[in-house]
Every structure is written in structure tokens, then in C-alpha cells.
């Protein structure tokens, strides 16, 4: 039978017993959790604090901002062209003596641009002048002979009437007079031929001087003193065919190519708004000059000529890239309506079933969901999701995520 003393003894702690074996399972779990945290921190640093993914970017261009009462029904790209441009050359083949123009120089109509060596032309002119002088001296000699023959014929006529000389002598005097008259006419015609030859020789000398056919600006200087120039390229690569190229800056216009599917929206005289690639904030008003009645079957486009109301502005030069918005009267737009933007098609990506683009700001790539509009050549119209002037990533990789750290590639690398 258990007594109270035995019960009390059973409650005592035996401090001489060895401790139970400890478990290491909890230690390994704790180390694994710490490793996960470290990897997460390192990954976050690589994404947000490291160099990031190198990407190429392009700028979104605002379109359709036509102003109150007007709306852009079509946008097209093209280039500034000159309707009046000439490569000026000499009319004759010769060696250049001096060139009096430089690129960017303004010239007036008739201004001397260059001179050729006139040695041959001067020699031909001197020969023609000598031939004219010889013909004129012959005229004087024949005129003196004719005067004497006319007097002799008149004297013999009176004597023949009085039967003092024979009829044969009188007729011989008349024949001599008539022959001298014919000789004088021939000599005068020869003198006129020599005079015409001298005038042609003068033109030959003048042809060694190259003049501007109209007022404009020199955009190219093609020849140097000592070179041979010719209106024909008979000399191959060693013969120049021109002195320089002149452009009438008042004849500048924009030539764009409009897709066949949209050409019906364009009408002659239609108001336009042109934005040059070099001056994105400058909107140049203008009008449609003409629609060229021919299509390009390879590109399925039709050329349209667009005039500019800023003629003579030095900022507009040939071959500049331009974007033209064709305008028509439209209903007043809502106060909160925003113009669309145009971005390269390469900036559009798919994430799930959504059209998206990545905007670069402060070294971070931000995902934007887009509402797309028309396709304009190699560009896409974005109706919502982007604003003009924002930088978008071109050809974004599949691994690029919202908030990822990126580095913008240099312009040279982007072009490659």
C-alpha cells in the first residue's frame, strides 16, 4: 500500500539523470528560411539596384491635335521636296577656271557661278572678227569699182545715142556694171554671214560663264578649279557634269504616300497640318496641292503633294522627314478628349490577351495597357495608354516585367 511519503518521493526531480538528446530538425528549417530571404533580397537588388536590362527606346509622337473645329482624318509620313531644283552645268565642255559658290550661299537669277577657260572660245571669236573685217573691206572695193562702172555706162549710153561709139562698147560697159552690182550683193551677204559667225563666237565665249538660272540657295558644290566639266558624261568618272545644285526654297512642299485604302479621304485643297521630324512642336498649316493620278502597285500607295504656308522659312530644307495630318471640319471635341499618339509597331507587345507597351521613366520600365487604332506604315496609333513625348521600349523581351530596372542603349546601338 502506497503511503504519503512514497507519493512525495515520486514528485522529486532526479538531477543525476543525463539530459534527453536534442533535435537538429528545427535548426535546419531556420537556416533554409534565412537563405530564402537572402536570395529574395539579392534578386530585388539585381532588379532595382543593378544595371538592369539594356533596351532600345523610341519617342511616342502626339497626333491629331489639329485645333478647334478641325480633326485629323488621316496621317501620313513623307519628305520635304523642292519643285524647282537644278544642277547647273556649262553648255560646253571645258576646264574650270574658277568657282564662285559655296554650299548654303544665296544666289540671284543671272549671277555668275563659275567660269571656264575661254582660250578656245576667244580664238574662235578673234577668227570670226577677222573674217567680218575682210568681208567689209571687200564691200568697199566692189563699191568703188561699181561707181566707176556706172559712170562709164552712163557716158557710153550718151555717146551711143549720138552714134559716136559702137553698140558693142556700150553693151560691154553695161555688163560690167551689172556684174559689179551682183558682186556687191554677194559681198554684202558674205559680210552678213561673217557677222552672224561673230555673234555665234560671242555666244561661245559667253557659254564659258555659268550663271544661275533662278534665285535660290546652293545646296551642293560639285566642281573645283582645274576639273573638266561637260554637259554630257562622256569623260566617265573624271569629267564633272555640273558645277553645283541650286534649290528655290520658295518652291518647297511635302510629298507623302497615302495607302490606297485611305486615299478617298484626301481631297485637293484640303487643309493640312505638317510636323517636321526636326521640330516636333512646330505645326505648319497648309493645303493639298494635288493628288498624283498614279499608284505604286508594289507599296499600294498614292502620292499626294502638300503645300506649306511657311514658305521661305530657313528651318525647312529639302529631304526633311515630315508627318502630315489631313484635316476636315469636325464636331467640337469634348473638353477632356486627348489626342492620340503614334509609336513604332515594334513597341507593342502582348501580355496575355492585352496590347501593352513599356514606358521608361527614371530607369524603370512601367507596363501600360493600350487601346490601339490605325496602322500607319510601320507605326501604330495608340488611342489610350500613352502620352506624347514618353519613351517606349522597342522589341521588349518576354522576360521584361512591370517595374523592372532597364538601361537605355546608346543611339548608335539602337540604329544597329
TrEMBL record:
Q: Where is the YknX-like C-terminal permuted SH3-like domain?
A: 342-408
Recorded GO molecular functions are: efflux transmembrane transporter activity
Domain CusB-like beta-barrel stretches: 254-326
Q: InterPro entries annotated for this entry?
A: Beta-barrel_RND_2, MdtA-like_BSH, RND_pump_MFP, YknX-like_C
**GO CC annotation:** efflux pump complex
User: Any coiled-coil ranges, and where?
Assistant: 132-159
Residues annotated as transmembrane = 27-47
Q: Which domain of life is it from?
A: Bacteria
Keywords for this protein: Coiled coil, Membrane, Transmembrane, Transmembrane helix
State the residue spans of region: Disordered: 1-21
Q: Which residues form the Multidrug resistance protein MdtA-like barrel-sandwich hybrid domain?
A: 84-230
Give the protein family: Belongs to the membrane fusion protein (MFP) (TC 8.A.1) family.
* Protein name, UniProt field: Efflux RND transporter periplasmic adaptor subunit
